[in-house]
Amino acid sequence: MTTTEQRHPAPTSSSGQPLRPPPPTWSQRLRNNRWLSFYTSPLLVALFLVAWKVYVEVTDLSRFVLPAPEAVFKSFAEQITDPFVWQTHIWTTFYEVMMGLALAIVLGVGLGLMIGKSPLFDRIARPFIVATQVVPKVALVPLFILWLGFGPSSKVVMAALLAFFPLLINTSFGVRSVPRSMHDLMTTLKASRWERFWRADLPYTMPFILAGMELAVVQATIGAIVGEYLGGDKGLGRYAVNLQNGLQVDKLFGAILIMALFGFTLYSVVTGARRLLIPWHESVQPRRTP
Length: 290
What we know:
Layout: H1 3-7, H2 26-31, H3 36-59, H4 69-80, H5 83-117, H6 119-134, H7 141-148, H8 152-176, H9 180-188, H10 193-231, H11 236-245, H12 249-277
């Protein structure tokens, strides 16, 4: 018997047999099921569609107010297979979101690292940065259109503006979360500034940056589509406005569904990247409920 076993003997019953842990309850097995969302999400969607269909049939609403689910899915199938929708609207919005997100990553992560590492720079820059964020972004769209035109550039800036702040805050918080013991270890090893960043700052900050990217990609999508709503010549936002003006309500619902799938796909890609880049972090490990 080892020393550990002598100090912490396994619990035994009155007959001397070792006690086994009780089997997990039904609720514990349900919480620990990693595939739970794959079962519940389709079920919730099905319940929502049934309620939608029943409401339309019972109230006898006009299709110009609320079309039936089958009419919406028929329009959605036509739209999602239309090359014009892909090439003109979906691709335009994708380009604007990706360019805006890239710009936000460069500025947000860069300034976040500087703010996290330098308290002096934090005191100088943070009030100005916060002041720019509290201004309603919708009010800035006419200025961006005036300065940059109706093309993608104004939407890229709008997407970057909305995605910038989550990346800045998460990055600065991540830099400040590096343990003091790690800084002491780097000092003991006489590590250079680059080695400190590569071996200490980046590994501890990366989970915060990727968490900020999950929110940033959603905000960038919203920014690009809102910019297209208010002043664009193409893109999913402009496409929805055109359908509204033409009273094509069933296709308008289909366009909204395309927007939802578009944003969900981008969010899933960022979430998957987080699992690939930091598989060691506890935030991507399956959580077990006791």
